[in-house]
Amino acid sequence: MRKRIKKKQYVDPEKHLTEKQVPAIKKYLDKKAAQVRPSRAWRALTNRAIFDFMVNTGLRAEELINVRMRDLPYCHGKDVVNVRRGKGDVARMVVISPALAKRIKEYVKRCRKSAKPNSYLFVNEDGGQLSYRSLYSKLQRIGLASGVGRLTPHMLRHTYAMYWYAKADKDVLGLQDQLGHRDTETTHIYARTTATERAKWAAICDR
Questions:
Q1: Are 124 and 46 in contact (CB under 8 A)?
Q2: pTM to 2 decimals?
Q3: What domains lie within the chain, and their CATH numbers?
Q4: b/e per residue, 177-186, with b = 16+ CB within 10 A?
Q5: How far apart are CA 62 and CA 90, in angstroms?
Q6: Computed over its alpha carbons, how large is the radius of gyration of the chain?
Q7: Higher pLDDT, 6 or 67
Q8: Does residue 82 contact residue 76 with C-beta atoms inside 8 Å?
Q9: Are 47 and 123 in contact (CB under 8 A)?
Q10: Cα-flanking dihedrals φ and ψ of residue 197, to 5°?
Q11: Given 3-state DSSP classes, what are the helix, strand and coil percentages for the chain, each rounded to the nearest 5?
Q12: What pLDDT score was predicted for residue 184?
């Protein structure tokens, strides 16, 4: 009989960012954007927007690269992001803060002003859909250049989840909806970290 592999009961510390690493990355990205001429700031601003978006929504990499303009508050007027094809082709709405909705709108006006409702939010330098490989490589470079080290899309998802759980008064079912988990047991890994660890997330992400 095959031995059943138990699911992970908690989030490993190396799989999420600390309360110091999130602002360190933001500071690095803001500095990069300020160092280039406005006419050449597209890449730096896009990198900043991608990090901001992922750490404040918890979207999976594939979900992020498939976000279109029509899915944003910028188009539909509500403080949610529509995820039309989540894992298992399950659609959901991810609630976001008014502050993030405003920053997304500012990014669109500056970098994606001519985009149509069906256009992707994040594109490559040729204007095509951003690939998973490109997204992964971007985050790797950002992690190394900012001094944080390893940085992956799923680390941002874990960071968001721990922040949301602490901020939302331990609402596991709400977090399950936000993350698009089918199984509540999967979401409970964020409830099984220590109280000290969870307390760190209440004010670090959406600054």
A1: no
A2: 0.82
A3: 17-153 (1.10.443.10)
A4: ebbbbeeeee
A5: 13
A6: 17
A7: 67
A8: yes
A9: no
A10: -65, -45
A11: 55, 5, 35
A12: 72
